[in-house]
Amino acid sequence: MIDVEQVITQLNQGQLFEYSGGVHPPQQKSLSNTTPINTIPEPEVLYIPVKQHIGTQGSICVTVGQHVAKGEALTQSSNPFAVPVHASTSGTIRAITPHPSAHPSGIPEMTVTLEPDGHAQWQLMPLLSDYMHLERITLLERICQAGISGLGGAGFPTHLKSNPQKPVECIIINGIECEPYITSDDRIMREHAWQIKQGIDILRHIIKPKHIIIAIEDNKPQALDALKTACLEDNGITITSVPTKYPSGGEKQLIQVLTGAEVPHDGLPIDIGCLMYNVGTCFAIADAVLHGKALVQRVVTLTGQALGHPQNVWALLGTPISHLLNIAEYEPSKQQAQKVIMGGPMMGFTVANDTVPVVKITNCLLVPDKQELPDIEDERACIRCGLCAEACPAGLLPQQLFWHSKAKEYDKAQAYNLDACIECGACAYVCPSEIPLVHYYRKAKTDIKHIALEKEKSEKARVRFETRQARLLADKQAREEKHRLAAEARKKSMDNKGNDAKDKIAAALARAKAKRAAAQNNSSTDSDK
Amino acid sequence: MQFSLSSSPHNRVRRDTGQVMRMVGYACIPGVLAQTWFFGWGTIIQIALAMITAVVTEATILELRKKNVSRGIRDYSAVVTALLLGICLPPLAPWWLVVIGTFFSIAIVKQLYGGLGFNMFNPAMTGYVVLLISFPISMSAWLPVQSMAQTSFGFFDALSMIFTGFTQTGYNLAQLQLGIDGITQATPLDAVRTGLLSGMTYSETLSASIFSSDWGWSYGWSSVALAYLLGGLVLLQQRIINWQMPISMLFGVILTAGFLSMLSPDQTGSITYHLLSGAVMFGAFFIVTDPVSGSTTDKGRIIFGLLIGFWTVIIRTYGGYPDAVAFAVVIMNIAVPLIDYYTQPRVYGHKS
Amino acid sequence: MTLLTALLIIGVLALIFGAILGYSAIKFKVEADPLVEQIDALLPQTQCGQCGYPGCKPYAQAIANGDEINKCPPGGDATIKNLADLMGVEPKPLDGDHGVEDVKKVAYIREAECIGCTKCIQACPVDAIIGASKQMHTVIIDECTGCDLCVAPCPVDCIDMVPVAPTTQTWQWELGKGVGDIPIKQVQ
């Protein structure tokens, strides 16, 4: 548990902590952060995936052909891990089918296809302007119903995070945005600092932390000023400028930078009394509570040298990226192979095609030109230079993880704490042999998960098989027992009734014998004739 | 529109293995120039011979192993190995010596273990040790610093010496080695060692012939060492090598030499003498910093370097050979897995 | 006398060492699963019987008694390797007589065609099919091991073995082999 008083004193004295490792990739932020967030025309069609967060998906509560209003829920569920998705604008539902997903694999997932009617007719939820006098459960309910999950990247349901079972020392508002190129948080902080402050106030009312820290990287001075102005008369909020280094915006790294404490490897930030929210999430919370608006849009950075007009836009959730690429004047000829990265250059993934939709965690579309981010060459032999270990913010030995992951020696990889890897990409960024280290780790991690799942499944099958065997055996024994008992009963009843019964049987047998003999005689006489 | 896929991170530092190796090569230039200045053209010829042998051997073996030959050559690791070995060999050693040594380094020490990245031992130093043990006479064929020798000879003399064993004017090596007063001139390390073995004290050996010229004691050797120090500092500044290994190795030498000379000043050289003679400076920046066969953790590198420094001085003082950097490196290569295992950094969120 | 001393010393030593050995045998006893249990834990528990034994446990018993380790197609090379490690023998390629390694499948009953004969229910080794006589049957997908044993008994042939499609949750970042996999170039 952190000592929040001491942390605040240290922050006020300008004292921050360092984490080992980290890298300084070229920032490239000025490409897109010079113009205000653009409001763009609606696309002709929206593809809204029914699951856009970590957890379970709700059941679809609309039908094809149905007309929906902007902000109307498309899914519902009573499961606390389900967060609804909403119609991003008013229009008609054209299909509910699998559609290529905003996921590295691009595997189709269940998606609602919505054709906008052009009116953008809102269906607002009742305003909760007087939230200071409302129960926290009402507010949590609203945050859940508005479909808010972490907009920073992980997509964890916000209402679950905001209902901790442990005391909260401090809330950290993450305005770091350490990935190169991305400026969506930067722009939203500059332009909507007040609403972010409102969101923070709501969170403060719900969670009642001892203090709130807003952390912003020192390459965003305007955003820092804007939030400082917004929080001017608030003593419960400390705004801190953090030196630019990748990946300071990682949850664990930022907690370490601000408090000097580390999240235990098998725990969550709440275990040391911290909760972290992205600035975009705070904005969305204020929208949901004070304006009754569900989460239907987010800021997306469109950037990269292959775009004629890089900018930040308000994109409706479900907007196919082709629409955004058109708006930013995508020039495919500037690329060797057509490639669009969703997210930043360090942790983003390439999307499968241009119909992939914007989802809640889409903060950036990066379209690099030929020279900007050239395709990696073939990996070369590892020369054990150790640059990766110096770059690793988690204190791992990426080389050992690499050897063991590649050789599929997963138990050894786990002994080197593979699961502590946050896949930030710092190791692969510095590797002179251009080994796609993170790819090996991801492969190993999913394999380990898969093996564990299989193990669990086979264990279940074994139990079911054995139970069935036992049941069959019991059935058989029961049957035999029944037969035996019946036989015994018969025998007993014969014994009880004594000679009488025996005689009857004997007489019956004698009769049968006589009959057979007679028949035989007849037949023999017949043949004699 | 379908898009092409790739794996994150999508951007990378544009400094690949080949560039790193080439930088190491360039950083050797001051040292090689100094060595050529003081010891003649032999060094350059040895380096060229070693490089040719290395590239041919590497290419042949990569071909045999059905690997991409041009990619393998273009990582420049074989060239750097050859360069380092060539620098260490006596300038006038016969040609077959360098060929055997380089072949052993590349074929046995590196490729037999699985190629770049898999060799347990430092290829150049293991090749050197093999030569030193197998051909001790040829390996001590160092000439006195040129300015001290009576007969100076040029590029073609060196070439002829290496390939035929005689200079153009018909002198052989032994005749060249006979110095000013008819005493065989060896390296300062040899001289001190011989002196100490024959019962002289350290200060007495220093006043012997090799040190008694106008140039002060082993002016040539220490200048070469300082030239390598210069190259090493460039590598440090460019962040091609880590500071841990070279600094801790020099520290190891200083500590051990300091301790021993306090214990028996007559039997061991001074700290400066140990630092500036033989291969210590060159080794600290160009040999122990070989990443493949060295330790990979920060703490491990410090231990690795310290112990190399320690063994260097110990073997120089008590062992059978005058210089010991190669032996110390090879000994510590063996210990690397153990060092790495016990110096793992603390992982985030885990207790130490 | 000397002889006696020597005997005595040896005897006492024998007693002491015997006591130490006996003590450590109890104190440091290694609790090991019986071999059959350990083998059984490595088998995939599909209970498909392709090995020629009526289930995984009987095959585990057979391996413990010296049968070959390469008769399990659902487990494939991974299981063979694990078994080889456990048994301390060399891994062998899968015995083709018992089938080939296939993608993971589950049974699917075309419900319109099901006549409710319960034959598949009796065949299922893990009770993953529910239904009753003259009623439609269905497969509990999560419990199905893909063993294939229900397909043959079905009189109207209404059971299909459907490959399990990867989802975004189960997708495995293959190293550039299948469709949708991210190509990376690795050195062998």
Describe the fold and architecture.
The complex is a heterotrimer of chains A (about 525), B (about 350) and C (about 190). Chain A is α/β, with parallel strands linked by helices and about 525 residues long. Chain A has helices at about 5-10, 135-145, 160, 185-190, 195-205, 220-230, 250-260, 280-290, 320-325, 385-390, 400-405, 410-415, 425-430, 435-529; strands at about 40, 45-50, 60, 65-70, 75, 90-100, 110-115, 170-175, 210-215, 235-240, 275-280, 295-305, 310-315, 340, 350, 365. Among the domains of chain A are: about 1-30 and about 125-290, 3-Layer(aba) Sandwich (Rossmann fold); about 385-495, Fumarate Reductase Iron-sulfur Protein, Chain B, domain 2 (Orthogonal Bundle). Chain A has 14 helices and 16 strands. In chain A, a hairpin with a 6-residue loop joins strand 14 (about 340) and strand 15. The longest helix of chain A has about 90 residues, at about 435-529. By secondary structure, chain B is mainly alpha-helical. Chain B has a domain at about 185-340. Chain B contains 18 helices and no strands. Chain B is globular, with a radius of gyration of 21 Å. The longest helix of chain C has 26 residues, at about 1-25. Chain C is about 30% helix and about 5% strand. Among the domains of chain C are: about 35-100, 3-methyladenine DNA Glycosylase II, Chain A, domain 3 (Orthogonal Bundle); about 105-165, Alpha-Beta Plaits (2-Layer Sandwich). In chain C, helix 2 crosses helix 3 (about 55-65). The N and C termini of chain C lie far apart (about 75 Å). Chains in contact: A-B, A-C, B-C. At the A-B interface, strand 15 and helix 13 of A face helix 1 of B.
